[in-house]
Amino acid sequence: MAETAYKLVLLRHGQSDWNEKNLFTGWVDVPLTEKGRAEAARGGELLAQEGLLPDVLHTSLLKRAITTANLALETADRQWIPVKRNWRLNERHYGALQGKNKAEIRDEFGEDQFMVWRRSYDTAPPQLDDSSEFSQHGDPRYAELGENAPRTECLKDVVERLLPYWNDQVVPDLQAGKTVLIAAHGNSLRALVKHLEGISDDDIAGLNIPTGIPLYYELGADLKPLGAGRYLDPEAAEAGAAAVANQGAQH
Ligand SMILES: O=C(O)[C@@H](CO)OP(=O)(O)O
Questions:
Q1: Is 4 helix (H, G, I), strand (E, B) or coil?
Q2: Which of 38, 80, 173, 183 could form a disulfide linkage to 69, CB 3.0–4.6 angstroms apart?
């Protein structure tokens, strides 16, 4: 008998305005660039070519993920599928770094501190003040969070807030035999991949997720990957991940 194989596709949004400008973004709701829109459409093309047609979509509450999913599904002719959106799929809240240039932060604080803030598992950047122009304080989409809305997060915080959504909302869709598309972000997807693949707290620092390229997993009945995750365009994914890793060096 064939092994159970749940089908899961992870898609980081295409290039955003602030990816292009090399700014820490987090929960700031920035749009895609034209390049990002093209990446998203190409992502949909890859899904269609592979016959990986999503039955249900889960997105964050941020327009770069929402637009990416819309464009990909339009290309794959799957605009009609049901959609669930949740803040638990949002990018990591980048605290006081939101809106700051990555290369300038690296220059000002040094490579070590920069890497701790950017890729350590359990050290969050300083909190973002509610009065900052880059704060989400008072944003109606986070009303349900009240005073518990994050003002900064480390990756560990993201794992902790993401897993209840994974278990309660995504897993039932997989178990119902649906091909699930999750359109989200560099760090919320790093958190999910860490969980799925059992990557250690140290090793996750070296994992970077490229923009706009579907990452496909087959999961067994125990919800663990049956093999390695597979990017539908592996060459572009390798180049894209290297570009993400290198962002602090780009002036
Ligand atoms: O700025 C951000 O929100 C994220 C993703 O773009 O950046 P990083 O890859 O540096 O964690």
A1: coil
A2: 183
201 is in an annotated binding site: no
Distance CA 223, CA 230 (A): 16
Q: Does residue 94's CB lie within 6 angstroms of at least one atom of ligand 1?
A: yes
**Catalytic hit among 3, 39, 74, 91:** 91
CA 177 to chain CA mean position, Å: 23
91 labelled catalytic: yes
pTM, 2 dp: 0.97
**Residue 25 CB less than 6 A away from ligand 1:** yes
Q: What is the pLDDT of residues 53-94, one digit of tens each?
A: 999 999 999 999 999 999 999 999 999 999 999 999 999 999
Is 207 close to ligand 1, i.e. is its CB under 6 Å away? no
Type of residue numbered 4: T
Distance CA 101, CA 247 (A): 10
**SS3 sequence of 73-96:** HHHCCCCCCCEEECHHHCCCCCHH
Ligand 1 atom nearest residue 24's Cα? 1
Ordered structural domains, the chain, with CATH: 16-177+191-219+243-249 (3.40.50.1240)
Among this protein's residues, is 137 annotated catalytic? no
The protein residue with its alpha carbon nearest to ligand 1, atom 7, reads 24
